[in-house]
Design brief:
This protein is an alpha/beta fold. The chain is 41% helix and 18% strand. It has helices at residues 3-9, 32-48, 68-80, 93-103, 131-145, 159-174, 193-201, 213-225, 241-247, 272-285, 294-310, and strands at residues 16-22, 57-63, 86-89, 109-111, 124-126, 150-156, 178-185, 206-210, 233-236, 255-257, 325-329, 332-337. α6 links the parallel β6 and β7 (178-185). It is globular and about 60 Å long.
Length: 340
């Protein structure tokens, strides 16, 4: 059900409605099929298991890929109409802050992706990782094993990349590595030239990428065309399976990610939970089901967490993912270390 229809029809006593605020447009829209697939899988499995107090779950989609004020207005309309019992989703942090401010603790809000850390907003439950938890072990592994001593920090100019850069500076300083350049850029298609020039000019060994979605894809494509891929390590806290496919894979061996889930890896490192989830999604949506990516896996956990909250049960919060570092190898992620 879309947000407009739910706001017009208002409360539905016979069902539990969960607002699903995920990017259907904007830089992260490439993840939408995966997110919608995993959210409907979670809602269907919960309904088949008895629902929430015997009521089935319905999802109400809100496009979280727009400007914060637009997304906030849609969520406010749903709340005013009593049309949703909870909201779950992922987005950029500026959008999530707008959603949390509108809900103001009156409606449960489960925010699922990696987040900027710090104090949360009343009524918002964050189940992802903060920048230090997500990045510290990966940075340490690359400094020690790939001799990545000179770093450029490159991200989009909003809350999450700013927090990632702040955390990375502290971690790299403690490791004896140097930040030799930093650049924050606006959302949207941009000339990659200044960023590439910064990498060359500073003689960087490594780039920490906090770009997201299609902007991350565009930069990685340009990076490869510039011939920098085999000389300079790249680490991303936002690269997931859909993004890797969109880039076209990587044959340099120097593209790394520290997202909490990855596509099927080598048999000795495969995530059995991820593989089982992909199998259940394929059974639910058919053989053309989208890939299970980190963002979608978070939404699946978020829907289940919201259902537990609405059922007056203490939700079994997803276990925090252990620190992971994966290297892109063709179109497959391979885990290359076990950072503590």
């Amino acid at each position: 059900m879309d947000a407009w229809e739910a706001a017009v029809t208002g409360r539905a006593p016979g069902v539990v409605r969960v607002g699903l605020a995920v990017p259907l447009s904007g830089p992260l829209a490439m993840t939408a099929p995966s997110a919608l697939g995993l959210a409907t899988l979670a809602a269907g499995e919960l309904t088949d298991a008895g629902g929430v107090r015997g009521r089935p779950l319905e999802l109400v989609t809100v496009d979280a890929g727009r400007r914060p004020a637009e997304v906030g207005a849609d969520v406010a309309a749903l709340q005013a109409a009593g049309a949703v019992d909870a909201v779950v989703g992922f987005s950029t942090s500026d959008v999530s802050r707008a959603v949390a401010a509108v809900l103001a603790g009156r409606t449960p809000y489960v925010f699922t992706p990696p987040h900027e850390g710090g104090r949360g907003t009343r009524g918002a439950l964050r189940i992802g990782s903060s920048p230090p938890v997500q990045h510290a072990a990966a940075l340490a592994w690359l400094v020690r094993h790939r001799r990545a001593r000179r770093w450029v920090l490159l991200g989009t100019d909003y809350v999450w990349p700013q927090a990632v850069h702040h955390a990375a500076r502290a971690v790299l300083r403690d490791l004896g590595a140097d930040v030799v350049g930093e650049l924050l850029v606006p959302f949207g298609p941009a000339d990659p030239g200044p960023a590439l020039d910064l990498v060359r000019r500073t003689r960087a060994d490594a780039v920490l990428l906090s770009l997201v979605g299609r902007d991350l894809v565009a930069f990685n494509r340009a990076f490869g065309r510039a011939g920098l891929g085999r000389r300079v390590v790249r680490l991303s806290g936002a690269l997931e399976e859909n993004g890797l496919y969109a880039i076209g894979g990587d044959d340099t061996g120097e593209l790394y990610a520290c997202m909490p889930s990855f596509a099927a890896a080598a048999s000795d490192a495969a995530d059995e939970g991820q593989l089982a989830l992909q199998e259940r999604l394929a059974a639910h949506a058919g053989p053309d089901a989208p890939v299970v990516c980190a963002y979608a896996r978070g939404v699946h956990d978020g829907v289940r967490t919201a259902a537990a909250l609405l059922d007056d049960r203490t939700p079994a919060r997803p276990r925090p993912p252990r620190a992971r570092l994966a290297r892109a190898d063709g179109l497959v992620f391979r885990e290359v270390g076990h950072p503590a």
